[in-house]
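Reproducibility note. Readers wishing to regenerate the assembly model reported in the main text can use the exact inputs given here. Chain order matters: entities are listed in the order in which they were concatenated for prediction.
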Amino acid sequence: MWDVAEELKAMLVFAEHRYYGESLPFGDSSFKSPRHLNFLTSEQALADFAELIRHLKQTIPGAENQPVIALGGSYGGMLAAWLRMKYPHTVVGALAASAPIWQFENLVPCGIFMEIVTTDFKESDPNCSESIRRSWDAINHLAATGSGLQWISEALHLCRPLTSSEDIQNLKDWISETWVNLAMVDYPYESNFLQPLPAWPIKIVCQHLRNPKVSDQQLVQNIFQALNIYYNYSGQAKCLNVSETATSSLGTQGWSYQSCTEMIMPFCTNGIDDMFEPHSWNLQELSNECFQQWGVRPRPSWITTLYGGKNISSHKNIIFSNGELDPWSGGGVTEDISDTLIAIKIPEGAHHLDLRANNPLDPQSVLLARSLEVKHMKQWIREFHASPKTAVLGYF
Amino acid sequence: MWDVAEELKAMLVFAEHRYYGESLPFGDSSFKSPRHLNFLTSEQALADFAELIRHLKQTIPGAENQPVIALGGSYGGMLAAWLRMKYPHTVVGALAASAPIWQFENLVPCGIFMEIVTTDFKESDPNCSESIRRSWDAINHLAATGSGLQWISEALHLCRPLTSSEDIQNLKDWISETWVNLAMVDYPYESNFLQPLPAWPIKIVCQHLRNPKVSDQQLVQNIFQALNIYYNYSGQAKCLNVSETATSSLGTQGWSYQSCTEMIMPFCTNGIDDMFEPHSWNLQELSNECFQQWGVRPRPSWITTLYGGKNISSHKNIIFSNGELDPWSGGGVTEDISDTLIAIKIPEGAHHLDLRANNPLDPQSVLLARSLEVKHMKQWIREFHASPKTAVLGYF
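Running the prediction on these inputs yields the following structure tokens for the assembly.
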């Protein structure tokens, strides 16, 4: 956005989503009662954006008759696409980067996400994904031995030693999420989105996982070396903290609530097409957790009812861009739907790489994606200026 | 709908709007607290319809891959159009009959509604509208005399005699609303929408208002004869009740609340372009009344922000039909917006005449309108069946 704004003579506006950052409708108690949380929905967020755009047009000199384009990545990309779908009078088009608008209900196979994570590691080195696949049993075997929990805790340099089988499950979930995050941020240059990381971090991580056929102990020690790339690239960490996977705050409370109400994304693994322990999608389990944590239960069909699922061809002027390394591309729109609902694939791209600032190490594919995106945006702006304007008259 | 359903092999579904009829979310206390009324919005109603359509498709054998068309008149017509705008994946098109989607904010002049009412009476007989225009002062003059209130009460056969100047204002409002209602239901045959009425009731009413240049007393007596057509066509009424303008229940409580929150329609009169006493649009007055009655205040810009106001050209497959006798046509879409956003005008039509059952006395213009509507509906259905279907797969 920063790079393109000048070329398009655009004003940049970053709208903060309600219940994130400083936009807390009930201040410190916003997350303390289900009644305070009733206003946290994607629909309400879109309404905020529509009101904000109207307000800006009415109050900023010269803004009234200018076109607006929505841009966003990830959930923000879904919102950008949905804003164009629900308020087409408000934005002339939307760039939805890495927006998994189909990661709902049964629109895509629930295993696709973890399959893409696996592919990223496998394409770096088949021994790497195989090492990870074997690591779960290695942990399970060691955990079943007398001093196993203590040994693992030390081998992984955990800040708090493991003491129960529940801790082991949490450990494996945390390790899994680390591999997921690495797939999301497998950028071609040093970056700091979820954690400070080297260029192409999966390649670096996989240098420690070249041999799957070692002893359980050796495998866990190798896993530590790999994890240490992700959690300790800075070299400052004295130990690894199983309760954290990202350093920056992405509004985990808000997303946790939304994942319990609207944003119900089925995920599953089978251990064959992916490198994880098998886990089927369990809505009832989620529902119970959500009720316990937030006093609400999920509405797994609502997003597709509201936004149309795969039946969105009546809309216009949305670009869906996806990096093929990004596991979220599995729930994204990766084929053109029409002349004006465009899919852009970025083979060497991770999670919304195209939205990041230009970088000398950018692969050719993301440069091409960005230039296509700008081409479409310019087209939307031209169409806006070419269309007859509705006279805005004050009649009172 | 009944006449056309068989031809289109259609199932008819009448969806009841929440807070109307028997659809009361909090039963008898639905209207007793602003907290119970928070769920009464047009957006929530549209969401209900989207959920209902999904439910019907999932539960009625053979329904799943069939197209759905939304039809409605008046507010129901607005909802039909808005459903197509907000949930285009749910309905392939909409017939919005007499839907004043532009009777909001300053999209049309606030006086247009009463001007059309006036035109209806004037075109029947210029002396008729002139008699009505003069009647207000006649009432004011008489009311200012010693026994004036009693005299007017008797001349108009009121069930409850007038006792205050506030009563006089109520009386004039009630008479005005009667003329408005007559304009809405000026149908070419006997009907019973708001009241049992003869064919072309304005013509009959105006037979009693042929001479505006009579004494105040004679004018009021003539007004009584005219009112008596509307309120006593059956001949059963012993007196006229100032607190009632319609016999059938149209859900006045629900609409009263909605008129205080979202449905803010500015109306005004100037006594020159219309036959009423001058009255400017006063949002503050409305706001205070709303706060007193419902504990809420209006959001006069929200409907245009939400549904786009005049900027709706990105949508497709909506027919806006309007009778030119209907005062609501002033806030309606009466010119084509595009090839697929169609306006149909019915010169001899009152309020959604096209949605009424076929009648031997139907004028040619409404027959033409209905056949055009069916033609477009068939086209939407053809397009639906011609378009590639999204495979609905169960992945779990």
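We highlight two features of this model. Confidence is low (pLDDT under 50) at residues 391-396 of chain B. Residues 154 and 171 of chain B are 13 Å apart (CA to CA).
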